[in-house]
Amino acid sequence: MAEGPDPVDSMLDLMRRLPPTNVEENVNALIQICPDYADDLLGSVDQPLKVKTDRATGRDYLACDYNRDGDSYRSPWSNEYDPPIEDGTAPTPKLRKLEIAANEAFDTYRELYYEGGVSSVYLWDLEDGGFAGVVLLKKAMIPTSPDEPSGSWDSIHVFETAERGRQAHYKLTSTVMLELVTKQNNKAEETSILGEPEKKASEQGWKSSGDITLSGSMTRQTEQDWPVHEPTSHITNTGKMIEEMEMKMRNLLQEVYFGKTRDIVYDLRSVDDLEKARRQRELQKELVGFIKR
Fold first, then answer.
1. The pTM is what?
2. DSSP states along the chain
3. Weakest mean pLDDT among 127-131, 203-207, 262-266
4. pLDDT at position 198, please?
5. pLDDT, tens digit (0-9, with 9 covering 90-100), for 213-230
6. Which residues neighbour 98 within 8 Å (Cβ) at sequence distance 6 or greater?
7. What is the tens place of the pLDDT at every residue in 92-114?
8. Residue 47: exposure state from Cβ atoms within 10 A (0-12, 13-18, ≥19)
9. Which phi-psi region, left, alpha or beta, contains residue 79 (left: φ > 0; alpha: ψ -120 to 50)?
């Protein structure tokens, strides 16, 4: 008798067909249906990064499946889990030293390229003697008024390192999750009265006339060899690869995806009067005809 499809493959196939804006809710729903496959699903589906605060240092860090142990998350700043747990997974002292240096380096990278947001780096040992890590970057745009746009950028860079003498082979898998929400609100009428408490936007006559949500994810891979002179060379090497990969993916999003979306919208609905444009083309043809004579 033939075996049925793998439940994890079926859940992943279903996730690809569901709206990316509700990925967290969809994952939780599938976990409730198939709790035995929770770890497999959480390790296979990229979700928007969560921002948490380290109680010991007061610094923000990013939580994902790579720094999770049960229901607790490890902070890269204090190396402690929240909520606290005993015997939580942690890097070796040698790798922890490199992790601290990597967090400081990518915190500078974040400030240079993102001018805000949160970054975190987590490292762990591999069974074959190398090590792996993940570099997380997140920036959210919080609207200050009802008609301002909102959005978020989440970068997840997972890399594996295998040293070969004075060189190291790096395999990088980068995922970017982008969400943009634009709102157009019209104020129907002034309803505030002098002396009364300020009312919410929904109570002041604001009516939404159109919302546009654009969201999705992109994943790319690359492999490179770089020289290693000292342990911190790994930070420099992975930093160069991540910097180059983010630039390529950002340009791809801007030129290909946004550009293609704009072209499709313009083909479906013209901004200018089509009759006016047709007359202009006819006038141009007549002028060209007079010039040729």
1. 0.79
2. -PPPPPHHHHHHHHHTTS-GGGHHHHHHHHHHH-GGGHHHHHHHS--PPEEEE-TTT--EEEE-GGGEETTEEE-TTT--EES--SS-----HHHHHHHHHHHHHHHHHHHHHHSS-EEEEEEEE-TTS-EEEEEEEEEEE--SSTTS-EEEEEEEEEEEEEEETTEEEEEEEEEEEEEEEEEEEEE------TTSPPPPGGGTTEEEEEEEEEEEEEEEEEEEEEE-SSTTHHHHHHHHHHHHHHHHHHHHIIIIIIHHHHHHHHHHS-SS-HHHHHHHHHHHHHHHHHHH-
3. 203-207
4. 47
5. 888 889 999 999 999 999
6. 123, 231, 232, 234, 235
7. 999 999 999 999 999 999 999 99
8. middle
9. left
Give the integer Cα–Cα distance in Å for 173 and 160: 9
Burial annotation 266-288 (CB, 10 A radius, 16+ → b, else e): eeeeeeeeeeeeeeeeeeeeeee
Residue 61, pLDDT score: 98
Better pLDDT: 55 or 262: 55
Annotate 113-148 with three-state secondary structure: HHCCCEEEEEEEECCCCCEEEEEEEEEEECCCCCCC
What local confidence, expressed as pLDDT, does residue 231 receive?
A: 93
* Structure-token pair, residue 85: 């747990």
